[in-house]
């Protein structure tokens, strides 16, 4: 009996040491805003991309071909695809889109919140709206961070969008075939134009959206805009951002799908030169831009609105005590 009590006393300090090694509650609380931003960003990206998936797929098909683009031809392609392969075929490649977009949007929105806080403290605007340049910089850094971490998934999604189901049966099959037949480096083909395009696109998009919200608050004295106002702000942000970076988006798609279209796009300047020589500046580098003017504002508007609403909802739940434990 005495021996057993002695053993228990010897074990007690070890148990206490184990308890003392646990992270303090303040550290766990610090992670909550980041986790909430990740969840809200993933959900926002999934909703937005699913809504505009048929238009996005149609745009990619025209971007990677030499066929002349027009709204009439785009909607004819959508109709012919529907009649030939059924309604769900319009969402072909959307599973790959979700695999890419959910982590991309989660990382982008979460990192944007973190960059805003870091830049706010650096420039002396902690808890306030950032001045113009840091506002642009926070968006650019967020988009670049997300693109760097999820790029191979974008390559896979582009391949699935422009090929028949017989060539690539699922996401894993795309990874395996590209790695085996073309080399692992192919998964990063088009990475440079992607980053060069993301910097102005993400920077301008977040800058425009945050600026419109700031102006709205100053004019109406309301802390938060209504959902339809958020949609309008997001639509404006998407329209301006995508128009500014669109030629690099075309170059990126050509380089990503070169392995299945029989083309030899290797460098950014070489791809641009070949597109301009064969198709012209407007009809080549801006092919499908009118489709982007339709789907881009819708997607960005839905994405920003969904993120803000779900983020506010989770914040209210936290304030009500649902996430206290």
Automatic annotation (TrEMBL):
UniProt main location, coarse: mitochondrion
Record localization: Mitochondrion inner membrane
Highest classification ranks of the organism: Eukaryota, Metazoa, Chordata, Craniata, Vertebrata
Function: Mitochondrial carrier mediating the transport of coenzyme A (CoA) in mitochondria in exchange for intramitochondrial (deoxy)adenine nucleotides and adenosine 3',5'-diphosphate.
Listed PROSITE patterns: SOLCAR (PS50920)
Residue ranges of Solcar repeats: 32-118, 130-215, 225-313
InterPro entries: MCP, MCP_dom_sf, MCP_transmembrane
Taxonomic source organism: Monopterus albus (Swamp eel)
One GO term (biological process): transmembrane transport
Superkingdom as given in the UniProt entry: Eukaryota
Pfam entry (one): Mito_carr
Keywords: Membrane, Mitochondrion, Mitochondrion inner membrane, Repeat, Transmembrane, Transmembrane helix, Transport
Cited SUPFAM superfamilies: Mitochondrial carrier (SSF103506)
Membrane-protein topology: Multi-pass membrane protein
Record-stated family: Belongs to the mitochondrial carrier (TC 2.A.29) family.
Reactions that this protein is recorded to catalyse: ADP(in) + ATP(out) = ADP(out) + ATP(in); dADP(in) + ADP(out) = dADP(out) + ADP(in); ADP(out) + CoA(in) = ADP(in) + CoA(out); adenosine 3',5'-bisphosphate(in) + ADP(out) = adenosine 3',5'-bisphosphate(out) + ADP(in)
Protein name: Mitochondrial coenzyme A transporter SLC25A42
GO cellular component assignments: mitochondrial inner membrane
């Amino acid at each position: 009996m005495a021996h057993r009590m002695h053993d228990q006393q010897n074990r007690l300090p070890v148990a206490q040491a184990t308890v003392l090694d646990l992270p303090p509650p303040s550290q766990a609380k610090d992670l909550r805003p980041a986790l909430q931003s990740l969840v809200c960003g993933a959900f926002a990206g999934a909703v937005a991309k699913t809504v505009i998936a048929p238009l996005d797929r149609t745009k990619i098909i025209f971007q990677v071909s030499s066929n002349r683009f027009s709204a009439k031809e785009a909607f004819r392609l959508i109709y012919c695809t529907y009649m030939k392969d059924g309604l769900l075929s319009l969402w072909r490649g959307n599973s790959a889109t979700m695999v890419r977009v959910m982590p991309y949007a989660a990382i982008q929105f979460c990192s944007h919140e973190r960059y805003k806080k870091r830049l706010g403290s650096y420039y002396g605007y902690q808890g306030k709206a950032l001045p113009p340049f840091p506002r642009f910089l926070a968006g650019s850094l967020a988009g670049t961070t997300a693109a760097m971490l999820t790029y191979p998934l974008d390559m896979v999604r582009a391949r699935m969008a422009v090929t028949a189901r017989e060539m690539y049966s699922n996401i894993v099959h795309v990874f395996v075939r590209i790695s085996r037949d073309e080399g692992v480096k192919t998964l990063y083909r088009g990475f440079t134009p992607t980053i060069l395009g993301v910097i102005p696109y993400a920077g301008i998009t977040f800058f425009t959206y945050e600026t419109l919200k700031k102006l709205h608050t100053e004019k109406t004295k309301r802390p938060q805009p209504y959902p339809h106002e958020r949609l309008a702000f997001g639509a404006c942000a998407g329209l301006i951002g995508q128009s500014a970076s669109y030629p690099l988006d075309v170059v990126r798609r050509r380089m990503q799908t070169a392995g299945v279209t029989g083309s030899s796009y290797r460098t950014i300047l070489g791809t641009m030169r070949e597109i301009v020589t064969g198709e012209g500046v407007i009809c080549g580098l801006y092919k499908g831009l009118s489709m982007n003017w339709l789907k881009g504002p819708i997607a960005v508007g839905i994405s920003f609105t969904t993120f803000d609403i779900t983020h506010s909802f989770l914040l209210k739940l936290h304030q009500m005590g649902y996430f206290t434990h």
